[in-house]
Structures are given as structure tokens and as C-alpha cells.
Amino acid sequence: MMSSTGAERTAKCVFLVAFCSVCQALQGGMLFPTESPSREVKDVSGLWRFRADLSPDRNRGFEQEWYKSPLAETGPVIDMPVPSSYNDITQDAKIRDFIGWVWYEKDVWVPARWIQDRGTRIVLRVGSAHYYSVLWVNGVKMTEHVGGHLPFEADIGSVLRQSSANPCRITIAVNNTLTLETLPPGTIQYMNDRTRYPAGYFVQNINFDFFNYAGIHRSVLLYTTPNAHIDDVTVETTFSDNIGLVSYNVSVLGSSKPAVKVTLSAQDGRCVASADGTRGVLKITDVNLWWPYLMHENPAYLYSMEVQATAEDGQTDFYTLPVGIRTVRVTNTQFLINNKPFYFHGVNKHEDADCLSPHRKTRFVFQIRGKGFDWPLLVKDFNLMKWMGANSFRTSHYPYAEEILQMADRHGIVIIDECPGVGIKDIRSFGNVSLAHHLTVMEELVRRDKNHPSVVMWSVANEPASEMQPAGFYFK
């Protein structure tokens, strides 16, 4: 374990970056990367090179600038699958319980046409890394992100075009230290009894009932857009009798006066409504509503909305997203979906799952992927929920992968979308730094998930110390 001075330095580093990040307004939307006539997506997940910084203060990687050269030149590296948590991949207890900086690296071939076409944006997106991440491309720092469970990205085209070198080298440093200002919060406890613990020994204390898995938990993607591109889309829906109304708001960057056309199609491909402009309302006759599972004979009906934005130079960007038309309303006694009472008959989920050995003589439970995204596990979970008649779940205790919400949209499973505010028990976590970070996380969460018809509620915390007196949030 690192020394107490080193641990304090690590915790302080996370604290300072968190404080700086929340002082800046969030930039841009969080549209899920999809392919279209104007966009391409390249998944660069798989095996990455990995090294944990085992130095006493966990800071050697930054002192020696590991991001400036191939990671293997800095010391021994191992294979690490992405997405996955690194904790249970090896047989090394030091890796399983590691607190501090770990380093990931992969060489990626970028299509030459992407680099040669200066009208193309090249974006690198990390679906989730726990907890605090710094990203470099070819040794150049591109961005950093505070908080796990939510995506971050950077436009890397300018760096790639500075050099003809291909493949490009992606380096990501991830620190899983939890402090009183992180979400979820945690504390470092130093064990100073030298009769029982070695010098500098410490533990990461947490106030939640699940393992603090760490690493790059979701896919790492490269995707392209035109320079003038659709940055964000906001959809709100309602209906009256058999008429559905879809209000939309499109944000376009890189063009001062884009021509925007929005088209809504039914599942059979028929165009049912269209409009021009960055804002507008689509009117659908004989609307098919989005209903929860077991609440209607045709649940989870999704329309397809195509947004087309053309810049002054003729460059056109296309983005398509599913749209479920439904309403949510709460009275003093009922929760209503489409004006009908909805009863939450569901579960609290987690993104990790234990596996049971099938061998009759060695019945043991083991965990490998941690919180790494896993399609077979996701499909099995939804089959289990529908088999037992569940119609909803809460994303306890953090935001889940976007693919999980998309699955819920398609199957009519209602979601209570929870932020990572679990275990906020210490009075020292009730302060302006924590509040500002919490607000940033909630903004990222809502911006990412606002268009999912399955999401009907936001959960801002789980079992906080709400019994305490108001902690005196204030703004200067």
C-alpha cells in the first residue's frame, strides 16, 4: 500500500481536479454514437496494455510522464480487457485491492480517409471509467473527467493530423480513490499500529454495500461527424386523444444558420410527421403510445426520428434516435403513465453479476468482469425480469450503460435513473465542493438520458444522512 503522505497526495489530487471541473460549465451534448450516412463508429475496445502505479505515492507515472512513450518502455505491462473492471482479472491481490493510478494504453489504426478529410471531426469517447480519468493521444493531453459511470469524449482530429504516424497511441490513466467530495464518497483510513500493520498501510473506507470496482467499464469508441454537426437533441412528448405531439430542440455546432429537417417514421417505415427548423412540434395522427411491459397489448412502441442538418457549405449531418411518445404525471396518491395508474413491480439492479461454477464437486461463486459491460448478461437480465413479471428497475446505485437504457426502451421496462450519490453519510460531505460536483453529475446524467421513454424518474441520492440537520449549503 502507498504511504500516508502518498495517499494524501492522491486524494488531494482527485479533490483539486474535482473542484476545478465543477467550476466549468459542461460543454456539448451527450448523443450516443451511432452510424449514419454522415457518421462512422469504430470500437477500439478489446485487449489493452495495463500497468498499475505501485510506487509509494502512486505518482511515478506522472513524474516520469508515462504517456509520452509506449507504456511497455516504462516497465512491465499486462493484458487487460476493455470493458471490464481490473480487480478480478489477475490472480494478484495487489491488483484486486489496488487504490490509486492505473494506466491503460492501446495502439489504434485510424482510417486514412478520416485524417485526410479536414471536414471530418474525429472523436474519442470513453463510455465510463472509474473514477477520475486523464486521456492522452500520442502523448498529448486531450481531456480529463471526474466521476465514474458517465461518458466523456474529446475531439482528437487536430492531434492526429499533426503527424502522419498511424496507428495512434491512446493512453488513459484512471484513479479509483474516493474522497469526501467524490460521488460516491469515501475516506482513507491510515493504520498506524506498527505491531499489526506495515508503515504507510491504509484502507479505502466506503459507505455502500457493493465492491468498489475500478477500471474502464464501458466501450471505448472512435466516431466521426462533419465539422458542422448535430450536437444535441431534446425531445418532449405528449398526446391528446389520438393525436401525439413531439416537441424537439436541435443544437447544431459549426454552422451559424443550419437548415434542419426532422422526420418521424413509424415502425413500418412510413413517414408520419416532418418539420423544418431547429425547434418545432411534430403532430402524429392515430398515435401509438409507448406503454410499459404488461400494461398494453403493444408495449414499448418506438418511432424513429431522423434529424438532418445542412450547413452553409452544403455539408450535411444525419442523426437518428428512437422516440417513445408517453406522458408521466404524479398526483397525491398515484403515479400515472399515459394518464393510467402505474404500479412499480420491479427490482433494484447492479451492473455486476456473480457466476456459479457448474461443476458438482466445486460449487463456488466467482466474479470476473466486475462492472464491465456484457451483452449476454444484459439480455439474460431482461429475460429474467420479464419472466418474473417485473416492469421496472432502479439503477442502484449509479447510472448504468446507455445500452441498458436502450434495451429498456425496446422492452417497455420502466427505469428510476439514479446518480452515484450513495452512502453520503459524513457531515464533511455536505459542503459546497460536494454540492457543485453533485450538480455536475446530475447535469451529465440528465443530458445523457433525457430522451429515453423508459426513464420516468431521477434519483439524486440513495440512503444519505437525511436525518441530520441541514448541512448549510450556501453560495458565495
UniProtKB/TrEMBL annotation:
Its EC number is 3.2.1.31. One of its GO terms (cellular component) is extracellular space. Keywords: Glycosidase, Hydrolase, Lysosome, Signal. Its main location: other. Inhibited by L-aspartic acid. It is found in: Lysosome. One of its GO terms (biological process) is carbohydrate metabolic process. InterPro entries: Beta-gal/glucu_dom_sf, Galactose-bd-like_sf, GH, Glyco_hydro_2, Glyco_hydro_2_AS, Glyco_hydro_2_cat, Glyco_hydro_2_CS, Glyco_hydro_2_N. Residues 228-326 form the Glycoside hydrolase family 2 immunoglobulin-like beta-sandwich domain. It is an enzyme of class 3 (hydrolase). Residues 1-25 form the signal peptide. Plays an important role in the degradation of dermatan and keratan sulfates. This is Beta-glucuronidase. It comes from Labeo rohita (Indian major carp). The lineage of its organism: Eukaryota, Metazoa, Chordata, Craniata, Vertebrata.
